[in-house]
Amino acid sequence: MKILFFFLALFFSSTSTALADCPAPADSSFAAAAKAKFDCSSSLPLKGHETDRKFQVHYNFPKTLPDTSKLPWLAINPDQDPAGYMKAILAYVTKVNARPEIDWRIEDNKQEHWCDAPWFFMLREPLRGMTTERWSRPKELHTLQTGWERNFAVGIYNDVACYGFGQIWENPAFPKTRGFAFTEGAVSAKMLFTSATPSSVPYLAGSKEWDIAGKKDGGTMTMRLLQLDISVKDKRSPNGWFFGTFVYNAMQPGNTPYERLVPVGLIWGSDPALNADAYLSKAMTPTESWVNPDVVAQFYALPRQHLGLFGRANGPVDNPQSACITCHQRALDWGTAVLPDTWQETEAEKLLPDVPSDPYDDKAIAAYFRNIGTNSPVADTQSLDYVLQVSKGIAAFRNWVATDFPDHAASTTDVPPYPFKQSDPDTCACAPTNAKAVTIDNTVEGISEENGPDPTGRLFLR
Ligand code: HEC
User: Fold this and answer.
1) 424 CA distance to ligand 1 middle (Å)
2) C-alpha pair distances (Å), 344 with each of 59, 119, 212, 339, 423
3) Is residue 429 over pLDDT 80?
4) How confident is the model at residue 22 (pLDDT cuts 50, 70, 90)?
5) Given CA atoms 176, 63, 126, 6 in this order, what sign does their dihedral have?
6) How far apart are CA 411 and CA 107, in angstroms?
7) Tens digits of per-residue pLDDT, 324-333?
8) Any ligand 1 atom below 6 A from CB of 243
């Protein structure tokens, strides 16, 4: 009897952990191992809520290009009516996905085709597939916000973007990126939720809530919708893409939280000339962003003042030293693994810093805030067309191959591996590389087991 109980306990414990685990490969081949990883939804733990519905990756990659002639935002001129343009895209994204019976479970949306980005299982929490984002520092969201707050996000893609995913990932054991570009009409939408509550950020009252397994041990926490990002491939932008963001505001009229989302800004270029000198001595303002004056006023009163550097469009959760499109133009494939804590990683960070090393260093600003159009941000690499989840997914695949199947590294890329060269640390005038992440200890005020320390122990400044 005892033995039976033991096996039963083993069975149940292994099934409950298996839910958050990756599927087992069909056989011992490399192709089967790659397919199992590709099909994995989340490998992060879940504690409590074990019987709740789980996040399930949904890859609905059309084989033929969907009709892009009737997309509703095409009738609106983004220069003349940026807010109207953004609202048309928001309405398109939320039309079915935001219905209570779907609630972003895109596999339940039978009228439209949306998909997820591959190779994020190791970063996705198991309930909603959310990945951890930059934390919000005290007073970044509101004057009453005294502690650090965590943010999580999940992005989804429309059928046009999913067609592009299918071109890359038709064979999960051999992603093809050579010459890759998305087609006009590709859309991504990303919802960002915060751990902040209305007592510290009053404009969050009545926002949409999700319980997610955001704690290190898989414990759940209640998060609120704060920001909704969109990106759209549209040739009316000189760089081929528009990026826009909305913020939730409790004071807005509307029957649903989505109706209370306010356009924050739209950006189509990096404004390369807008550096510290131009901003401070010439009062230059962005010409390649539209920003909503009401939202500008709401955030200008905070220590951060601007959402994006020197007034460029950006979101409340984003790094104020950057701007949407500038950070996103960094999407590329190195064609080779860049493993953590190697000199190649140091070189990669120098070539492609997450944020400028110093916002008052005009050289660093000129190197970072560029308009590159369809070019890759680093010569001799393959552009991944402004979609960072594609580049991060490819990078995760390449790192896995290099670690677990090094013999397959060369035969699983159709672009040449980037010829990294180790620079001499004494002569290199490169940007400091510590801008990306600082190590935190959990004794920092406001960051505790309570609100869930970052599982990696690193605070992403993104
Ligand atoms: C400093 C860098 C940075 C800034 C600034 C930034 N993002 Fe992102 N964004 C990312 C990264 C990294 C990802 C993918 C990683 C993830 O989802 O976990 C991402 C993902 C997204 C996605 C999902 C599709 C994709 O490209 O992966 C959208 C849509 C998006 N961001 C829109 C925006 C908008 C709109 C803004 C400005 C309001 C913005 N982003 C600002 C780094 C940035």
Assistant:
1) 32
2) 32, 21, 35, 7, 10
3) no
4) confident
5) negative
6) 33
7) 999 999 999 9
8) yes
The angle subtended at Cα 359 by Cα 356 and Cα 364, nearest 5°, is: 50
Nearest atom, ligand 1, residue 154 CA = 17
Does pLDDT of 430 surpass 70?
A: no
Distance between CA 237 and CA 405 in Å, rounded?
A: 41
CA of residue 139 to ligand 1 center, whole Å: 22
The Cα 181–Cα 161 span in angstroms is 10
Token representation of residue 231: 């990106």
Let me know: does 210 contact 223? Beta carbons within 8 Å.
Answer: yes
Radius of gyration of the chain (CA): 22
Is the beta carbon of 231 within 6 A of some atom in ligand 1?
yes
Instruction: For residue 365, give both structure tokens.
Output: 């600003």
**What per-residue confidence (pLDDT) applies to 444?**
33
Distance of CA 265 to the CA centre of its chain: 18
C-alpha dist (Å) from residue 242 to 150, 186, 238, 384: 27, 11, 9, 16
Q: What is the pLDDT of residues 280-299, one digit of tens each?
A: 999 999 999 999 999 999 99
